[in-house]
Write a structure and sequence with these properties.
The protein is an all-alpha fold. It is built from three helices and no strands. The chain starts with a helix and ends in a 48-residue tail after the last helix. The model has no long low-confidence stretch (mean pLDDT 74).
């Protein structure tokens, strides 16, 4: 149960971390904004966004690595399931030679149409 909960939390933290990294501006964005290349207005103010977003990214990255280590530790202590495809020779089905196979008797002989001895009669005109 704990493993499944940690997997869900791990995925949520990973998505939030990706979102935080994509929302942040690069270091070169300030230089372009000073020459009029882009708007420098931010939601959190001039210096507040850097502190808030960098701290949030650092916290999410730390959570991501800690949960990764915990999941790795939990999965290493679990018993490994037997792989069905590991040894195919032991579970191979032996085929019966053609001489020993039983004849197909599902269809009665009376239901099978007789072959026409004249093949020219089978050609539609």
């Amino acid at each position: 149960m704990l493993y499944e909960v940690l997997i869900v939390v791990y995925l949520i933290v990973a998505l939030l971390l990706i979102g935080m990294v994509l929302v942040q501006q690069g270091k070169g964005a300030d230089m372009g904004a000073s020459f009029g290349a882009g708007g420098s207005n931010t939601v959190f103010g001039a210096s507040g966004s850097g502190n808030f977003m960098s701290r949030t990214t650092a916290i999410l990255a730390t959570l991501f690595f800690v949960i990764s280590l915990i999941l790795g530790n939990l999965s290493s202590s679990q018993e490994k399931q037997v792989d069905e495809w590991q040894n195919l020779e032991s579970s191979a089905v032996q085929q019966i030679p053609a001489e020993e196979q039983p004849a197909d008797t599902d269809v009665p002989a009376s239901d099978v149409p007789a072959a026409d001895p004249k093949p020219e009669n089978n050609i539609p005109e």
